[in-house]
Design goal:
Shape: globular
Strand content: 15-25%
Number of strands: 12
CATH topology of the domain at 15-219 and 272-303: TIM Barrel
Radius of gyration: 19 Å
Number of helices: 11
Strand order of the largest sheet: 3-4-5-8-9-10-11-12
Helix content: 25-40%
Structural class: alpha/beta
Largest sheet: 8 strands, parallel, barrel
CATH architecture of the domain at 15-219 and 272-303: Alpha-Beta Barrel
Length: 339
């Protein structure tokens, strides 16, 4: 396996615009969820240092959610960017409700909830505006038009700059976009999860909406090292990380590692660069809590592919290659994007 990733020496981060009317952001975004112990314990100091290293490398798009660690993540991000707020675009998800044990207890995207959640996020993030604000999931009890209309009111007040969506399907995207221009759709997209290619990507491109892709490393499945999960890591309950599914998926990753080794990059860099190669309207979000992994991810930005290499990757991981669904059944039921 390749042990030394491509480095960022002499590197200049490229930019991409989110949608026809959205902000210009770095071609790679940093997902901050894992810094609030979503994948097992995370070191606070190292997490903050990682955010700051990302800014130094030219990463401007930071993704968080008000329910990540029940507000912990926003407070951590605020500390990490203190004095550098004008260098970043903050992408914030809202609507997820959790109890004191961290369990999800539903979603609330009513207009009154939009105003409430945003007020708390602005306070925790120590800012007067959020660059991109989006409901984390479709609330089945609230028309998407009502939710987007409420966010649009916050745009008029200057508290939100742009509106995004997360994990919704083509019909919902169209309904939302009819109320207010949507900058981007955040959705899982990577070598082992390509469901967006069935219908959603065609819809976003028709409407001039970008994709911010999370899960580009399939939550750690795509790695040059065997995956070990802490007892507190929620991935242990995800179908792709269990039994025969995990064996099948690790076999796919072994083949991807062979392609990456032949190319002289790490398999993580291969996976990130593949997502970025899908189009100028796609921005990969890389979730990491360590500076070394960030350096590796940023090094993917100058990785390009020949048609032969793309065909070789396609042969290994075609659409639908991964075994198991990406979430457990009850969580899959919450995804409008899967309907």
């Amino acid at each position: 396996m390749v042990e030394t990733p491509k480095t960022t020496k002499g590197f200049e981060m490229q930019k991409r615009q989110l949608g026809a009317t959205g902000p210009v952001v770095s071609a790679l975004g940093l997902g901050c969820m894992g810094m609030s112990n979503a994948y097992g314990p995370a070191d606070r100091d190292e997490s903050i240092a990682t955010v700051r290293a990302a800014l130094d490398a030219g990463v401007t798009l930071l993704d968080t959610g008000d329910f990540y660690g029940q507000g912990h993540n926003e407070l951590l991000v605020a500390e990490a960017i203190r004095g550098r707020r004008d260098e970043v675009q903050l992408s914030v998800k809202f609507g997820g409700m959790r109890d004191a044990d961290g369990a999800f207890i539903g979603f609330d995207t009513r207009p009154v909830a939009v105003a409430n959640f945003l007020a708390y996020s602005l306070q925790r993030l120590d800012t007067d505006h959020v660059d991109i604000y989006r409901p984390a999931r479709l609330d089945p009890s609230v028309p998407i038009e009502d939710t987007i209309g409420a966010i649009a009111e916050q745009v008029d007040k200057g508290r939100v700059r742009h509106i995004g969506l997360s994990e919704v399907g083509a019909e919902t995207i169209r309904r939302a976009h009819a109320v207010h221009p949507i900058a981007d759709l955040q959705i899982e997209y990577g070598l082992l999860e390509r469901g967006v290619e069935r219908e959603i990507l065609q819809t976003t491109r028709e409407l001039g909406i970008s994709i911010t892709a999370y899960g580009v490393l399939s939550r750690g499945l795509i790695s040059s090292k065997p995956l070990t999960l802490d007892a507190s890591d929620w991935r242990g309950h995800a179908p792709r990380f269990q039994g025969d599914n995990l064996t099948r998926n690790q076999d796919l990753v072994t083949k991807l590692n062979e392609i990456a080794e032949a190319k002289g990059v790490t398999v993580a860099q291969l996976a990130i660069a593949w997502v970025a190669s899908r189009g100028e309207d796609v921005v990969p979000l890389v979730g990491t809590t360590k500076r070394a992994r960030l350096e590796e991810a940023v090094g993917s930005a100058d990785v390009t592919f020949t048609e032969r290499e793309l065909a070789e990757i396609e042969a290994v991981v075609p659409l639908g290659a991964a075994a198991g669904t990406r979430y457990a059944a009850e969580q899959m039921a919450m995804l409008d994007s899967e309907r």
